């Protein structure tokens, strides 16, 4: 009685037997129904706002169009045109190149930072502060953080001035801005946190006893890292990789701004078509990109069974 | 803490500590270097431009933010962004927390929902807006802030919230719930007095994450927003028309604001945890 009053203040007046009886009166839902009640709203929203629109542009991608409007049809012309244009291949190759380089850089930097924060910073408060220091720039608009590199990397920019002041070079470096280099630097700046978060989460779950055991068994630092820590953090690595990869593949602003018009991305090509109201070719373009990203992400999720790790 | 060998037998830090520490410092420098440049440039003199050199100093560009110009009306757009982000954050917490709890047991169709969330998360952002924009066009509806734009943002914040909840729920010890049931708590009481309070710090994290994602979002929003812009879209419009240090001033203000909000939230969470520490002395 006393205990129950502590836990459920409402039963105090009515006596202990009441709530139990009332509970029995309600038919108990099976577990799967409870789960669906909890998951249902999220599933319904994604169905309406993600699946339906995707189906819609799949349908539109077969439509006919002219300068005035779009017309229901079943044409493969939009795809044929897209897949036979050399520009398409060039843009995909260029985007994949950026994605691969940025993925490798963010993985190395992100893993090192996460490892440092989780295993080397002992004070929990200091660790929280360091994490926040990494996260705070994220609150500034990505657009502003992108163009922040322009005065930094420009010919008279801060970086060149530092280089010249310290005598490393005597002329400003020209390749820094409006180049592939600038695009990659900006991507790494924008997306490394997406790697740090999931990896740090995985690392924090590793039982210290396992690492100690590896050490006691005579493993070197490197062997412990490769044989114990990396396999145990592969979920975080996979999640971070998926996030970084899809962000780069979906970008249109950074490439446009930082390459100085020298490079295009798949989505910037697409957004040009959307602005020109050429919806069917844009939709075909979008479908190809969706399938491409889905295949790549599916491949990454085959390498690491993310679901098994996340959902018990 | 022995993990990762942060301390050798004699108490000294291993060489990897110094290596990774240096790398972390370099990363912070890389992260804040360009930001520092824009903080400085936001105090650019009235005749100065978006690059060095500085032509005197002034607060002109901060003042410009608050003056509705021909190109952009920053304060109004800011208000819209905050309103939208608050609604997105609230809905995300509501649905993602519920779904996170639902996913604690396997149920028929759980795999489908999981991969639906993954697909929605990895979908290139502009395409989501494109699809929803097309849908509204076909239905003859007008795109607007709290219909199409809200929907487009939820396709991004809900999967994010769900994944964050997986991490939060994984650390939750179900013995607490069983204890509550054994003591006669109804399932509602168990949720209200046991589960939610224990998950609260994680839920605050989901709320803040969703807020941030929404506040900064432009690729999904640009084709679904209708005639009235949010702040990122207003900034985007400013860039395409004329670049001025006003953009940098916005960046500086945002950073100051972020530090304030995060500081306050941090104090709040720390107080929550301290209170819990005294209420449940044996919690690990």
- The CATH class label of the largest domain in chain A is Mainly Alpha
Give the full name of the CATH homologous superfamily of the domain at 75-243 in chain B: MetI-like
The helix-and-strand class of chain B reads mainly alpha
Strand content of chain A: under 5%
**CA-atom Rg of chain B in angstroms:** 24 Å
Helicity level of chain B, as a percent range? over 70%
Q: How is the CATH topology of the largest domain in chain A named?
A: MetI-like fold
Q: Main β-sheet of chain A, in a few words?
A: 2 strands, antiparallel
The low-confidence parts of chain A are 1-22
Q: Give the full name of the CATH homologous superfamily of the largest domain in chain A.
A: MetI-like
Mean pLDDT of chain A: 83
**SSE string of chain B, helix = H, strand = E?**
HHHHHHHHHH
Number of helices of chain B: 10
Shape of chain A: globular
Can you describe this structure?
The complex is a heterodimer of chains A (312) and B (284). Helices cover 74% and strands 1% of the residues of chain A. Chain A has 312 residues and is mainly alpha-helical. Chain A folds into 2 domains: 1-60, no CATH class; 76-310, MetI-like (MetI-like fold). In chain A, strands 1-2 form a two-stranded antiparallel ribbon. Chain A is globular. Chain B is an all-alpha fold. Chain B has 10 helices and no strands. The longest helix of chain B has 34 residues, at 246-279. Chain B starts with 14 loop residues before the first helix and ends in a 5-residue tail after the last helix. Chains A and B meet through α1, α3, α4, α6 and α7 of A and α1, α3, α4, α5 and α6 of B.
